[in-house]
Amino acid sequence: MRTCRVALFALCAFPCAAVSGQDSRSAEAVKSLTAVMSTYRQTAIAAKDPDTGEFVAALFFPDVQLLVVSAPSPAAALLDEQIAAKNFQEVYAALQDASVKNSRVFFQDLGADGLHAGGGDAVDVFYDHGQQVLFDGQPRKHKLSEQVYRDKFGTADAKYARMVNLLLAQVRRMALR
């Protein structure tokens, strides 16, 4: 009985330990992407998702943050041309346009080190179709249960890893040319 009380106390007193200990699937992909972008001195990259037809673009600020956005575009042919011309910042700007806000997925990866559930100094931010989620290790502060927070983090991290891997494939294709 005493052991149960101690375990229950530990779970209640340190709720962020379980949340912040959640592994990041996106960390390795981001590390690879930012390394290649740094090598080629690129600050922007964009690609078309072959599965969904949506576009993905990123702006990279070394040692500061990686901003990654994905959205459908009514001007798909224009964005295809922009990608072919390597005008990646133009693609990023088009995807950040207010008219696609409710269909856009956007990540602010502070530290450019992949998403983390929290517990450190950096806070990662995820916008999913206009809804913001802060990954700062404090689910209760945002009126979320730990399970809902973990689920949101898992979903966001998987999306982010997929988007970053699409961009990584694009930057590697360009490097081979």
Description:
The protein is α+β, with helices and mostly antiparallel strands and 177 residues long. The protein has one domain. Helix content is 45%, strand content 20%. The protein contains 6 helices and 6 strands. A 6-stranded antiparallel beta sheet has the order 1-2-3-4-5-6, sandwiched between helices. Strand 5 and strand 6 form a beta hairpin. It is globular. The termini are far apart. The N terminus is likely disordered.
List the helices and strands and how they pair.
Blueprint: H1 2-13, H2 15-20, H3 26-39, E1 44-48, E2 55-61, E3 65-71, H4 76-84, H5 88-95, E4 105-110, E5 124-128, E6 131-135, H6 146-176
Antiparallel strand pairs: 1-2, 2-3, 3-4, 4-5, 5-6
Helix pairs in contact: 3-6
Quick summary of this structure?
The protein is α+β, with helices and mostly antiparallel strands and about 180 residues long.
- By secondary-structure content and strand pairing, the structural class works out as alpha+beta
- Contiguous helical run count: 6
First-last Cα distance: 66 Å
What about the largest sheet?
Answer: 6 strands, antiparallel
Poorly predicted ranges (pLDDT <50, ≥5 residues)?
1-21
Give the H and E element order: HHHEEEHHEEEH
Strand content: 15-25%
Q: What's the total number of strands?
A: 6
State the main characteristics.
alpha+beta; 45% helix; 6 strands; 177 residues; six-stranded antiparallel β-sheet; 6 helices; single chain; globular
